[in-house]
Amino acid sequence: MFAMLVEINIKEGKEQEFLEVFARNHIGTRQEPGNLRFDVLRDPEIKTRFYAYEVYVNEQALEAHRQTAHYHRCVAELEPLMTGARSKKLFDWVMPENLTNECG
């Protein structure tokens, strides 16, 4: 599995518009066969900072996601809402959920 955390900083007053734009990407991504998880999180202390936590079956599934129409539309519509470029961090999966459930 392949996980990624994306930080997105939005201009003040544009939070609701961000959520509307990103919801379309969320719905489309969850329908992709290679996507296992797509969570959208908001920083409780910085209300204009959001995170997308994405999990894919492999790196090829992430690349396929980046080729979809909903991804390209989202990136284009987010550009004027952001304070700067998104930051992305990739992770290797070391403890899948099914293993952690066995621990308690």
TrEMBL record:
Question: One GO molecular function term?
Answer: (4S)-4-hydroxy-5-phosphonooxypentane-2,3-dione isomerase activity
Q: Does the keyword Repeat apply?
A: no
For whether the record's keyword set contains Hydrolase, the answer is no
Q: What class of enzyme is it?
A: isomerase
Which Gene3D superfamilies does the annotation name? Answer: 3.30.70.100
Q: What is its EC number?
A: 5.3.1.32
State the InterPro entries in the record.
ABM_dom (IPR007138), AI-2_Isomerase_LsrG (IPR050744), Dimeric_a/b-barrel (IPR011008)
- Cellular component, GO, one term: cytosol
- Any idea which UniProt keywords this protein has? Cytoplasm, Isomerase
Q: Which PANTHER family match?
A: (4S)-4-HYDROXY-5-PHOSPHONOOXYPENTANE-2,3-DIONE ISOMERASE, QUINOL MONOOXYGENASE YGIN-RELATED
**NCBIfam families xrefs:** PRK10486.1 (NF007791)
The protein depicted here goes by the name (4S)-4-hydroxy-5-phosphonooxypentane-2,3-dione isomerase
